[in-house]
């Protein structure tokens, strides 16, 4: 017996393809959408339809943008001599939210993961090397995640950029703000000791 | 500075209106949708657009259905003399999944909640009383949730149906299958003792 109407089942099926959303959550979301006015579902649908056609990659830093170059690359008030290398556009948003970075970006669109067949050619490494080779970059700040693939990607980039006449930096690794030292894991604490800075 | 492209921001805004999805999860979902082929976003949009126009309420049991009456109400193999009263269409799906109920349903579309201004007129109580008054129903199984508003709704329905020449039943309340008795909360255990059944 078809208890779930086909139109509802189709939406549940599509929603459950999203990351972190299983069939149960998808069902809950779909039933909630159905209970609300049709206009809200139509608006959500319209924003989905417009998404890919409105957004492209910035040809300079490869972030998602509606213009090319993106607002950051086009901003004369930002310092194009510093390039912050991140894995994904979401990481750029996180860095921007801090308000403490005024340089440009370079989005790799992934991390090196040989087991998944992702080598340097699959992510925007060549484009980064070209930007550095052009001579316009004075500092490359590597801001990949502090995970195994993130660290591996950072090591690879450091290796490739070793000979370039630039300053090569990485995000500091240490105790998160507001954290009680006794709850910090030993690897983080070791990194914090290793990277200790002079107090005044 | 507009770091999030407007088209992406619009989708994030719309996604974060869904229940249990905050701005952070909405951003993660939207970026994931953007990274995948446009065809998947279009298909999700199409299923959202088609939803409300394809689905209506069954005029007999008020579940979501593409046909009227719904597949359950129209099925001659099901026993229309028993009506299971549930809060929402999702509850009907849960009961159907057990495979151990072969009667009809009645969806209230809510529970009594005086503080939110939801009285008997706001949910499908009148329609249930009319179904019972028509004489076609022999048993009403009240299957509202075992929550405070669910119990209040059940009490109200029992009160209104007291005089009707029908069998009035409720779901059994007790220890969940597979649960260790020492971890059962005292209210559930008390209910299980109260509702104990003769063994063989």
Write the layout of secondary structure elements.
2 copies of one chain form a homodimer.
Chain A: H1 6-15, H2 23-35, H3 38-54, E1 56-57, E2 64-65, H4 71-74, E3 79-86, H5 89-98, E4 103-107, H6 125-133, E5 139-142, H7 148-161, E6 167-170, H8 186-194
Helix pairs in contact in A: 1-2
Short overview:
With 200 residues, chain A is an alpha/beta fold. Chain A is built from 8 helices and 6 strands. Chains A, B: It holds the Pfam family RecR_ZnF.
Explain what this protein looks like in three dimensions.
Two copies of one chain form a homodimer. Chain A has eight helices and six strands, in the order αααββαβαβαβαβα. Chain A is an alpha/beta fold and 200 residues long. The first copy, chain A, has a domain at 79-200: Dna Topoisomerase Vi A Subunit, Chain: A, domain 2 (3-Layer(aba) Sandwich), CATH 3.40.1360.10. In chain A, β1 (56-57) and β2 form a beta hairpin. In chain A, α1 packs across α2 (23-35). The longest helix of chain A has 17 residues, at 38-54. The termini of chain A are far apart. The interface between A and B is large, with 56 and 56 residues.
User: What global shape of chain A is seen?
Assistant: globular
Oligomer classification: homodimer
Number of helices of chain A: 8
The counted number of beta strands of chain A is: 6
Largest sheet of chain A: 4 strands, parallel
Q: Please compute the radius of gyration of chain A using only Cα atoms.
A: 22 Å
Chains forming the largest contact: A-B, 56 and 56 residues
The stretches of 5 or more residues of chain A where confidence is low (pLDDT under 50) are none
Whole-number average pLDDT of chain A? 93
What is the percentage of strand-forming residues of chain A? 5-15%
Secondary-structure-derived class of chain A: alpha/beta
Give the N-to-C terminal Cα separation of chain A: 74 Å
Q: Percent range for helical residues of chain A?
A: 40-55%
Q: Give the strand order of the largest sheet of chain A, numbering strands 1, 2, ... along the chain.
A: 4-3-5-6
